[in-house]
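task queued by scheduler; priority normal; single chain, no ligands, no partner chains; default sampling; output format set to structure tokens
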Amino acid sequence: MNDNNTQPPASNPQPKLLNIYFTAGIPQLEDTAEIIKLIQDSEADMMEIGMPYSDPVADGPVIQKAHELALNNGMTISTLLSQLRSIKEEIKIPIILMGYINPVLSFGFENFCRECSESGVSGLIIPDLPPIEFEKNYQQILEKYNLNFTFLVTPETSDERILYLDSLSSGFLYAVSSSSTTGNENAVLRNENYLSRLASLPLKNPVMIGFGIRSKEDFENVTQKADGGIIGTAFVNILLQNRDWKTKAIDFIHSIRA
């Protein structure tokens, strides 16, 4: 495990890890820093920040809309990293950047990793980066800049491949609750066989469940056999749909913890 890890402090009293996702640059370009502080102050254990991209194929309509709005607001990788650097000393919980590989390659992979490290980022999630390419071209660069990297698994992923992806991951393993895009209301959150299979495997990383968690009940269901849950679409919806999103966002995170 890197020192710059994506796991919360061991003293955190919460038994299950709560990871909140939002897209950088919404509702307005300059709101990112305030949302980060809000998530930290609401006692989430970590957060994922989505890097806006014009073709987010793994995301559902809500997060696609968030990406579109953020891009229209002018959010870029450079702007996001600059915003993160400005509050680096104030943020104590892990920040993981999540996005697609093409914008990162356009930025320059090593340059991106260097700036992430300098901006207080703990790790990366890039779902469309193949593990073979990761091992061949990028793993050493991530280690050089003390950044963790998380791979995703689904109910259809074989045990052998889950173990392989876990061996490459650091920080945590992202277990997608169902084979769908983010925010799918039909996502099956109580796939007992899948969750039991994950719990039975000798994994080195904590397992966090994502996709489809919208409430405290959902969170408690999926974390019965996992180390934590990731909430994205439900939180992004609050940011998109409410002028007074600050109060509602705080209340939402507190409702998960209640």
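post-processing summary
- The chain is about 45% helix and 15% strand.
- The beta strands are 17-23, 46-50, 95-98, 123-125, 148-149, 152-153, 173-176, 207-210, 228-231.
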